Amino acid sequence: MLDSGWARGRGLLVLVLSALLASAVLVGCGDDEDEGGDGAASGEEQTDKKVRIGFVLPDLSNPVIAGFRDGAVAEAEKRGWEVLVKGTSDAKGQSDAVLSFIAAQVDLIAMDPIDGDAMAPTVTQANDADIPVIAFQAKPASGDLATFIFPSETTAGNFMGAGAVEFCKDKGEDPCEIGIVEGNPGDSSGREENEAFLKTVGAEPSIKVVGANPTNYDPAKALNVATDLLTANPGLDYIYSWWDQGGAAAVEAIKARDKLGEVGVSSQNGDCLNLQHVVNGDQYQDSAFFPTIQGSILITTAADVLDGKEVPPEIKAPVMTVTNKTANAWLDGSSEPTEDDVELGGATLEAVSADIVKRLEQAKAGDCPS
User: Fold this and answer.
1) What does the pLDDT look like over 240-256, one tens digit per residue?
2) Residue 309: how many CB atoms within 10 A of its CB?
Protein backbone atom coordinates (compact mmCIF):
# COMPACT_ATOMS: atom_id res chain seq x y z
CA MET A 1 0.00 0.00 0.00
CA LEU A 2 1.40 3.41 -0.96
CA ASP A 3 1.74 5.64 2.12
CA SER A 4 0.18 9.08 1.60
CA GLY A 5 2.44 10.52 4.28
CA TRP A 6 -0.46 12.38 5.90
CA ALA A 7 -0.97 12.41 9.62
CA ARG A 8 -4.47 11.41 10.62
CA GLY A 9 -5.56 14.92 11.55
CA ARG A 10 -4.22 16.48 8.40
CA GLY A 11 -5.93 13.77 6.36
CA LEU A 12 -9.27 14.67 7.91
CA LEU A 13 -8.70 18.37 7.19
CA VAL A 14 -7.95 17.63 3.54
CA LEU A 15 -11.04 15.48 3.26
CA VAL A 16 -13.20 18.32 4.54
CA LEU A 17 -11.62 20.75 2.09
CA SER A 18 -12.07 18.21 -0.72
CA ALA A 19 -15.78 18.00 0.09
CA LEU A 20 -16.17 21.73 -0.59
CA LEU A 21 -14.44 21.46 -3.96
CA ALA A 22 -15.60 18.15 -5.33
CA SER A 23 -19.37 18.18 -5.85
CA ALA A 24 -18.96 18.64 -9.62
CA VAL A 25 -17.50 15.17 -10.10
CA LEU A 26 -20.29 13.34 -8.30
CA VAL A 27 -22.77 11.98 -10.79
CA GLY A 28 -26.26 10.91 -9.80
CA CYS A 29 -27.65 7.45 -10.24
CA GLY A 30 -27.59 6.58 -13.93
CA ASP A 31 -26.06 9.89 -15.14
CA ASP A 32 -23.21 9.73 -17.64
CA GLU A 33 -20.68 12.38 -16.76
CA ASP A 34 -20.18 15.37 -14.50
CA GLU A 35 -23.76 16.55 -14.04
CA GLY A 36 -24.31 16.97 -10.32
CA GLY A 37 -25.96 14.11 -8.45
CA ASP A 38 -27.36 14.21 -4.96
CA GLY A 39 -23.86 13.78 -3.51
CA ALA A 40 -23.55 14.21 0.23
CA ALA A 41 -26.41 16.72 0.39
CA SER A 42 -29.18 14.11 0.34
CA GLY A 43 -31.33 15.97 2.86
CA GLU A 44 -31.86 12.74 4.81
CA GLU A 45 -31.26 12.31 8.50
CA GLN A 46 -28.05 10.51 9.34
CA THR A 47 -30.00 7.76 11.09
CA ASP A 48 -32.07 7.12 7.95
CA LYS A 49 -29.29 7.60 5.41
CA LYS A 50 -29.64 5.98 2.01
CA VAL A 51 -26.78 3.65 1.16
CA ARG A 52 -24.58 5.34 -1.43
CA ILE A 53 -21.99 3.63 -3.60
CA GLY A 54 -19.30 5.69 -5.34
CA PHE A 55 -18.49 3.99 -8.64
CA VAL A 56 -15.42 5.14 -10.64
CA LEU A 57 -15.25 3.84 -14.20
CA PRO A 58 -13.42 4.58 -17.46
CA ASP A 59 -15.12 6.62 -20.20
CA LEU A 60 -18.85 5.89 -20.24
CA SER A 61 -19.02 6.30 -24.03
CA ASN A 62 -17.64 2.75 -24.12
CA PRO A 63 -20.84 0.62 -24.30
CA VAL A 64 -19.54 -2.10 -22.00
CA ILE A 65 -18.51 0.47 -19.39
CA ALA A 66 -21.98 2.03 -19.60
CA GLY A 67 -23.37 -1.49 -19.15
CA PHE A 68 -21.42 -1.90 -15.90
CA ARG A 69 -23.04 1.30 -14.66
CA ASP A 70 -26.52 0.31 -15.82
CA GLY A 71 -26.34 -3.12 -14.22
CA ALA A 72 -25.19 -1.65 -10.91
CA VAL A 73 -27.81 1.11 -10.98
CA ALA A 74 -30.65 -1.30 -11.74
CA GLU A 75 -29.66 -3.66 -8.93
CA ALA A 76 -29.15 -0.78 -6.48
CA GLU A 77 -32.59 0.65 -7.25
CA LYS A 78 -34.14 -2.64 -6.14
CA ARG A 79 -32.64 -1.98 -2.70
CA GLY A 80 -33.41 1.72 -2.55
CA TRP A 81 -29.68 2.47 -2.82
CA GLU A 82 -27.99 5.19 -4.82
CA VAL A 83 -25.02 4.78 -7.16
CA LEU A 84 -22.89 7.87 -7.76
CA VAL A 85 -20.96 7.41 -11.00
CA LYS A 86 -17.90 9.04 -12.50
CA GLY A 87 -16.66 7.86 -15.87
CA THR A 88 -13.37 9.09 -17.31
CA SER A 89 -10.28 7.60 -18.93
CA ASP A 90 -8.11 10.30 -17.35
CA ALA A 91 -6.09 8.93 -14.44
CA LYS A 92 -6.18 12.19 -12.47
CA GLY A 93 -9.91 12.52 -13.09
CA GLN A 94 -10.44 9.07 -11.63
CA SER A 95 -8.28 9.86 -8.60
CA ASP A 96 -10.13 13.13 -8.02
CA ALA A 97 -13.44 11.28 -8.19
CA VAL A 98 -12.37 8.84 -5.49
CA LEU A 99 -11.26 11.72 -3.25
CA SER A 100 -14.65 13.34 -3.81
CA PHE A 101 -16.47 10.18 -2.81
CA ILE A 102 -14.31 9.90 0.31
CA ALA A 103 -15.10 13.49 1.22
CA ALA A 104 -18.82 12.86 0.65
CA GLN A 105 -18.59 9.90 3.07
CA VAL A 106 -20.15 7.35 0.77
CA ASP A 107 -20.69 3.90 2.21
CA LEU A 108 -18.51 2.02 -0.28
CA ILE A 109 -16.30 2.82 -3.27
CA ALA A 110 -15.96 0.64 -6.36
CA MET A 111 -13.32 1.41 -8.96
CA ASP A 112 -12.18 0.26 -12.40
CA PRO A 113 -8.82 2.07 -12.55
CA ILE A 114 -7.44 3.08 -15.90
CA ASP A 115 -4.02 3.38 -14.24
CA GLY A 116 -3.50 1.12 -11.22
CA ASP A 117 -0.44 2.98 -9.97
CA ALA A 118 -2.17 6.36 -10.09
CA MET A 119 -5.20 5.09 -8.19
CA ALA A 120 -3.29 3.33 -5.41
CA PRO A 121 -2.87 6.38 -3.09
CA THR A 122 -6.63 7.02 -3.14
CA VAL A 123 -7.26 3.46 -1.95
CA THR A 124 -5.02 4.20 1.02
CA GLN A 125 -7.06 7.30 1.79
CA ALA A 126 -10.33 5.37 1.55
CA ASN A 127 -8.85 2.76 3.89
CA ASP A 128 -7.92 5.52 6.35
CA ALA A 129 -11.49 6.83 6.18
CA ASP A 130 -12.87 3.32 6.90
CA ILE A 131 -14.66 3.18 3.54
CA PRO A 132 -14.56 -0.30 1.95
CA VAL A 133 -13.15 -0.48 -1.58
CA ILE A 134 -14.10 -3.02 -4.23
CA ALA A 135 -11.91 -3.30 -7.30
CA PHE A 136 -13.97 -3.88 -10.43
CA GLN A 137 -12.60 -5.10 -13.77
CA ALA A 138 -9.06 -3.86 -13.00
CA LYS A 139 -7.11 -3.53 -9.75
CA PRO A 140 -5.22 -0.63 -8.20
CA ALA A 141 -1.53 -1.36 -7.71
CA SER A 142 -1.89 -1.49 -3.93
CA GLY A 143 -4.26 -0.84 -1.06
CA ASP A 144 -6.66 -2.92 1.03
CA LEU A 145 -9.58 -4.24 -1.01
CA ALA A 146 -12.80 -5.86 0.15
CA THR A 147 -12.73 -7.99 -3.02
CA PHE A 148 -12.01 -7.88 -6.76
CA ILE A 149 -14.84 -8.50 -9.26
CA PHE A 150 -13.67 -9.30 -12.77
CA PRO A 151 -13.97 -11.50 -15.82
CA SER A 152 -10.64 -13.20 -16.39
CA GLU A 153 -8.52 -11.05 -18.68
CA THR A 154 -6.27 -14.06 -19.14
CA THR A 155 -9.21 -16.09 -20.44
CA ALA A 156 -10.28 -13.21 -22.70
CA GLY A 157 -6.74 -12.93 -24.08
CA ASN A 158 -6.52 -16.69 -24.60
CA PHE A 159 -9.83 -16.62 -26.48
CA MET A 160 -8.59 -13.80 -28.73
CA GLY A 161 -5.29 -15.55 -29.32
CA ALA A 162 -7.10 -18.78 -30.22
CA GLY A 163 -9.24 -16.82 -32.68
CA ALA A 164 -6.14 -15.40 -34.33
CA VAL A 165 -4.51 -18.83 -34.52
CA GLU A 166 -7.63 -20.35 -36.09
CA PHE A 167 -7.87 -17.55 -38.66
CA CYS A 168 -4.19 -17.83 -39.54
CA LYS A 169 -4.43 -21.62 -39.99
CA ASP A 170 -7.46 -21.24 -42.25
CA LYS A 171 -5.67 -18.58 -44.28
CA GLY A 172 -2.51 -20.68 -44.55
CA GLU A 173 -0.03 -17.77 -44.48
CA ASP A 174 3.50 -18.36 -43.19
CA PRO A 175 4.33 -16.09 -41.58
CA CYS A 176 0.89 -14.91 -40.55
CA GLU A 177 1.46 -11.27 -39.57
CA ILE A 178 -0.35 -9.74 -36.61
CA GLY A 179 -0.49 -6.09 -35.51
CA ILE A 180 -1.68 -4.92 -32.10
CA VAL A 181 -3.77 -1.87 -31.20
CA GLU A 182 -2.96 -1.37 -27.53
CA GLY A 183 -4.92 0.57 -24.92
CA ASN A 184 -3.14 2.18 -21.98
CA PRO A 185 0.04 0.34 -20.87
CA GLY A 186 -0.71 1.47 -17.30
CA ASP A 187 -3.93 -0.56 -17.30
CA SER A 188 -3.21 -3.82 -15.47
CA SER A 189 -6.20 -5.61 -16.98
CA GLY A 190 -5.11 -4.67 -20.50
CA ARG A 191 -1.58 -5.87 -19.84
CA GLU A 192 -2.87 -9.18 -18.49
CA GLU A 193 -5.06 -9.70 -21.55
CA ASN A 194 -2.20 -8.78 -23.90
CA GLU A 195 0.21 -11.17 -22.20
CA ALA A 196 -2.28 -14.03 -22.57
CA PHE A 197 -2.83 -13.23 -26.24
CA LEU A 198 0.90 -13.11 -26.94
CA LYS A 199 1.48 -16.38 -25.12
CA THR A 200 -1.23 -18.11 -27.15
CA VAL A 201 -0.11 -16.87 -30.57
CA GLY A 202 3.54 -17.24 -29.56
CA ALA A 203 3.09 -21.01 -29.41
CA GLU A 204 2.51 -21.02 -33.19
CA PRO A 205 5.80 -20.75 -35.13
CA SER A 206 4.03 -19.49 -38.25
CA ILE A 207 2.69 -16.37 -36.48
CA LYS A 208 4.71 -13.16 -36.30
CA VAL A 209 3.77 -10.00 -34.39
CA VAL A 210 4.96 -7.14 -36.58
CA GLY A 211 3.94 -4.04 -34.60
CA ALA A 212 2.11 -2.64 -31.57
CA ASN A 213 1.29 0.88 -30.39
CA PRO A 214 -0.67 2.38 -27.45
CA THR A 215 -3.74 4.59 -27.87
CA ASN A 216 -4.86 5.40 -24.30
CA TYR A 217 -8.16 3.78 -25.34
CA ASP A 218 -8.90 6.61 -27.77
CA PRO A 219 -10.86 5.31 -30.82
CA ALA A 220 -9.45 8.05 -33.06
CA LYS A 221 -5.90 7.07 -32.12
CA ALA A 222 -6.85 3.43 -32.64
CA LEU A 223 -7.89 4.21 -36.21
CA ASN A 224 -4.52 5.88 -36.79
CA VAL A 225 -2.60 2.96 -35.27
CA ALA A 226 -4.53 0.37 -37.31
CA THR A 227 -4.03 2.41 -40.49
CA ASP A 228 -0.31 2.74 -39.79
CA LEU A 229 -0.01 -1.01 -39.17
CA LEU A 230 -1.66 -1.75 -42.52
CA THR A 231 0.56 0.81 -44.28
CA ALA A 232 3.81 -0.41 -42.74
CA ASN A 233 2.91 -4.07 -43.29
CA PRO A 234 1.14 -4.54 -46.64
CA GLY A 235 0.86 -8.28 -45.97
CA LEU A 236 -0.77 -7.84 -42.54
CA ASP A 237 -3.15 -10.74 -41.83
CA TYR A 238 -4.67 -9.92 -38.45
CA ILE A 239 -5.23 -7.04 -36.03
CA TYR A 240 -5.75 -7.63 -32.32
CA SER A 241 -7.16 -4.73 -30.29
CA TRP A 242 -7.23 -4.53 -26.50
CA TRP A 243 -10.86 -3.33 -26.55
CA ASP A 244 -13.86 -3.24 -28.86
CA GLN A 245 -13.84 0.39 -29.91
CA GLY A 246 -10.27 -0.17 -31.05
CA GLY A 247 -11.45 -3.30 -32.85
CA ALA A 248 -14.19 -1.34 -34.61
CA ALA A 249 -11.57 1.23 -35.64
CA ALA A 250 -9.45 -1.60 -37.04
CA VAL A 251 -12.42 -2.80 -39.11
CA GLU A 252 -12.81 0.74 -40.49
CA ALA A 253 -9.13 0.87 -41.42
CA ILE A 254 -9.36 -2.52 -43.12
CA LYS A 255 -12.51 -1.44 -44.96
CA ALA A 256 -10.70 1.65 -46.26
CA ARG A 257 -8.14 -0.72 -47.81
CA ASP A 258 -10.92 -2.86 -49.33
CA LYS A 259 -9.69 -5.86 -47.34
CA LEU A 260 -12.72 -6.78 -45.23
CA GLY A 261 -12.58 -10.50 -44.49
CA GLU A 262 -8.98 -10.74 -45.71
CA VAL A 263 -7.57 -9.23 -42.51
CA GLY A 264 -9.01 -10.76 -39.35
CA VAL A 265 -9.77 -8.83 -36.17
CA SER A 266 -10.07 -9.82 -32.51
CA SER A 267 -11.10 -7.51 -29.71
CA GLN A 268 -12.79 -7.65 -26.35
CA ASN A 269 -15.98 -6.41 -24.67
CA GLY A 270 -18.93 -7.71 -26.69
CA ASP A 271 -20.12 -4.31 -27.93
CA CYS A 272 -23.13 -4.45 -30.27
CA LEU A 273 -21.23 -2.97 -33.23
CA ASN A 274 -18.42 -5.50 -32.88
CA LEU A 275 -20.86 -8.39 -32.59
CA GLN A 276 -22.47 -7.07 -35.78
CA HIS A 277 -19.05 -7.11 -37.45
CA VAL A 278 -18.53 -10.70 -36.22
CA VAL A 279 -21.91 -11.84 -37.58
CA ASN A 280 -21.18 -10.17 -40.94
CA GLY A 281 -17.68 -11.65 -41.17
CA ASP A 282 -15.90 -8.29 -41.00
CA GLN A 283 -14.42 -9.17 -37.59
CA TYR A 284 -13.36 -12.73 -36.87
CA GLN A 285 -13.67 -12.99 -33.08
CA ASP A 286 -14.74 -11.11 -29.98
CA SER A 287 -14.29 -11.90 -26.29
CA ALA A 288 -17.62 -10.82 -24.84
CA PHE A 289 -18.19 -9.59 -21.32
CA PHE A 290 -21.60 -9.47 -19.66
CA PRO A 291 -21.70 -5.98 -18.19
CA THR A 292 -25.19 -5.86 -16.73
CA ILE A 293 -24.64 -9.22 -15.03
CA GLN A 294 -21.29 -8.03 -13.70
CA GLY A 295 -22.76 -4.69 -12.53
CA SER A 296 -25.46 -6.48 -10.57
CA ILE A 297 -22.82 -8.71 -8.98
CA LEU A 298 -21.14 -5.54 -7.68
CA ILE A 299 -24.22 -4.48 -5.74
CA THR A 300 -24.99 -7.90 -4.27
CA THR A 301 -21.36 -8.16 -3.22
CA ALA A 302 -21.41 -4.64 -1.74
CA ALA A 303 -24.42 -5.66 0.34
CA ASP A 304 -22.45 -8.57 1.80
CA VAL A 305 -19.45 -6.34 2.51
CA LEU A 306 -21.57 -3.68 4.26
CA ASP A 307 -23.36 -6.40 6.25
CA GLY A 308 -19.97 -7.58 7.53
CA LYS A 309 -20.17 -10.93 5.75
CA GLU A 310 -17.02 -12.67 4.62
CA VAL A 311 -16.48 -12.42 0.86
CA PRO A 312 -13.79 -14.15 -1.21
CA PRO A 313 -10.82 -12.04 -2.33
CA GLU A 314 -11.80 -12.56 -5.98
CA ILE A 315 -15.21 -12.94 -7.61
CA LYS A 316 -15.32 -14.03 -11.26
CA ALA A 317 -17.70 -12.62 -13.87
CA PRO A 318 -18.41 -14.42 -17.17
CA VAL A 319 -16.44 -14.01 -20.40
CA MET A 320 -17.27 -15.77 -23.70
CA THR A 321 -15.61 -16.19 -27.08
CA VAL A 322 -17.78 -15.44 -30.12
CA THR A 323 -16.53 -16.15 -33.64
CA ASN A 324 -18.15 -15.66 -37.02
CA LYS A 325 -18.82 -19.40 -37.17
CA THR A 326 -20.34 -19.80 -33.71
CA ALA A 327 -22.33 -16.56 -33.81
CA ASN A 328 -24.22 -17.56 -36.95
CA ALA A 329 -24.73 -21.12 -35.71
CA TRP A 330 -26.27 -19.82 -32.48
CA LEU A 331 -28.48 -17.44 -34.43
CA ASP A 332 -29.84 -20.08 -36.82
CA GLY A 333 -30.28 -22.59 -33.99
CA SER A 334 -27.95 -25.21 -35.44
CA SER A 335 -25.96 -25.17 -32.20
CA GLU A 336 -25.96 -23.57 -28.75
CA PRO A 337 -23.20 -22.12 -26.58
CA THR A 338 -21.39 -24.69 -24.46
CA GLU A 339 -19.09 -24.43 -21.48
CA ASP A 340 -16.15 -24.63 -23.91
CA ASP A 341 -17.18 -21.21 -25.21
CA VAL A 342 -17.32 -19.44 -21.86
CA GLU A 343 -15.77 -19.06 -18.44
CA LEU A 344 -18.92 -18.71 -16.37
CA GLY A 345 -17.62 -17.45 -13.06
CA GLY A 346 -20.68 -16.90 -10.87
CA ALA A 347 -23.16 -16.95 -13.77
CA THR A 348 -25.14 -19.85 -15.24
CA LEU A 349 -24.78 -21.14 -18.80
CA GLU A 350 -28.51 -20.59 -19.31
CA ALA A 351 -28.31 -16.91 -18.32
CA VAL A 352 -25.18 -16.24 -20.36
CA SER A 353 -26.53 -18.06 -23.42
CA ALA A 354 -29.80 -16.12 -23.35
CA ASP A 355 -27.89 -12.87 -22.96
CA ILE A 356 -25.47 -13.44 -25.86
CA VAL A 357 -28.12 -14.71 -28.29
CA LYS A 358 -30.29 -11.67 -27.55
CA ARG A 359 -27.31 -9.40 -28.18
CA LEU A 360 -26.42 -11.21 -31.42
CA GLU A 361 -30.01 -10.87 -32.65
CA GLN A 362 -29.89 -7.16 -31.89
CA ALA A 363 -26.55 -6.86 -33.68
CA LYS A 364 -27.73 -8.82 -36.75
CA ALA A 365 -30.78 -6.57 -37.02
CA GLY A 366 -28.51 -3.53 -36.97
CA ASP A 367 -30.30 -2.28 -33.87
CA CYS A 368 -27.15 -1.05 -32.14
CA PRO A 369 -27.24 2.16 -30.04
CA SER A 370 -25.70 5.07 -31.93
Assistant:
1) 999 999 999 999 999 99
2) 9
Backbone angles phi and psi of 33, in degrees to 5: -130, -125
Q: What percent helix, strand, coil does the chain show, rounded to 5?
A: 50, 20, 35
Q: HSE-up of 77 (CA within 13 Å, CB side)?
A: 9
C-alpha span between 109 and 196 (Å, rounded): 29
Helices (H) and strands (E) in the chain, counts: 12, 13
Q: Residue 128: which residues within 8 A CB-CB, separation 6 or more?
A: 4, 6, 8, 11
Domain termination site, one of 122, 145, 168: 145
Asked if pLDDT for residue 3 goes beyond 60, the answer is no
What is residue 48's predicted lDDT score, i.e. its pLDDT? Answer: 59
Alpha helices in 217-290 (DSSP H): 219-232, 244-256, 272-280
What is the sign, positive or negative, of the torsion defined by CA atoms of 334, 153, 346, 60? Answer: negative
pTM: 0.73
297 in a structural domain: no
Cis-peptide, bond into residue 205, ω within 30° of zero = no
Following CA atoms 64, 337, 201, 116 in sequence, which dihedral angle do they give, to the nearest 10 degrees? 30
**Domain that residue 165 falls in:** 153-290+319-364
- What's the Rg (C-alpha) of the chain? 21
Give the model confidence (pLDDT) of 119-132 as tens digits.
999 999 999 999 99
Q: What percent of the chain has pLDDT over 90?
A: 81
